[in-house]
Amino acid sequence: MLKEILEWDRETFIYLNSLGIEQYDVFWSTVTKIPTWIPLFLLFGFLFFKKYTKREALFMILTVLIMVFFVVTLTDLTKEVVARLRPNNDVEINTLIRILRSPTGYSFFSGHASSSFSITTLVFLFLRKHFKWSIVFYIWPFLFVTSRIYVGVHFPVDIIVGALVGMFSAWLFYRLYQRLILPYLALNRPL
């Protein structure tokens, strides 16, 4: 079964990567860089401060940052244990694909997927009652992870697992926030 999944993963990656068009290389190479998304992160912070007290907003931002540290650490540890080569470093297929970036680290699971889906999901959970349109925040992780296939550095399974880990981590940290931080904030509210 694992062999079939890995074969599907490899074939799907080669097919999707081959759909790339040279005129869009600059776009996807820009989308895949984390600094490109700094304005979105600032928007998240602004929305927290707009709908919550300063103290609540700061605790939400702190929760997001701690979760990101957790997700990045989990991702890096998993990559070292699994040690799956990235497509751009896999000699069996790297001559068959378009490669726009050449990282040397391991592939499974995608840090771009785990971090972007965790951040987006936690922000969505915090803001969904205040902004009905907050579901559109998911455009970011979908573009972000699509870029990883386009530039030749992640297989689809890397991205799918990374996204699932990210969303589960966000749910976990949201529950921790509700159980540990909200009661603290309620006790320390000025009368």
Can you tell me about this structure?
- It contains seven helices and no strands.
- The protein has helices spanning 2-18, 25-31, 38-51, 54-82, 111-127, 139-150, 156-187.
SSE diagram, text form:
Elements: H1 2-18, H2 25-31, H3 38-51, H4 54-82, H5 111-127, H6 139-150, H7 156-187
Helix pairs in contact: 2-6, 3-4, 4-5, 4-7, 5-6, 5-7
Order of helices and strands: HHHHHHH
Number of strands: 0
Cα Rg:
19 Å
Quote the distance from N terminus to C terminus.
Answer: 61 Å
General shape = elongated
What multimeric state do the chains show? single chain
The overall number of domains is 1
Mean pLDDT, rounded to whole units?
92
**Which range does the strand content fall in?**
under 5%
Largest sheet: none
Query: What are the segments in which pLDDT stays under 50 over at least 5 consecutive residues?
Result: none
Q: Give the count of helical stretches.
A: 7
SS content category: mainly alpha
Q: Helicity level, as a percent range?
A: 55-70%
What keywords describe this structure?
mainly alpha; single chain; elongated; 191 residues
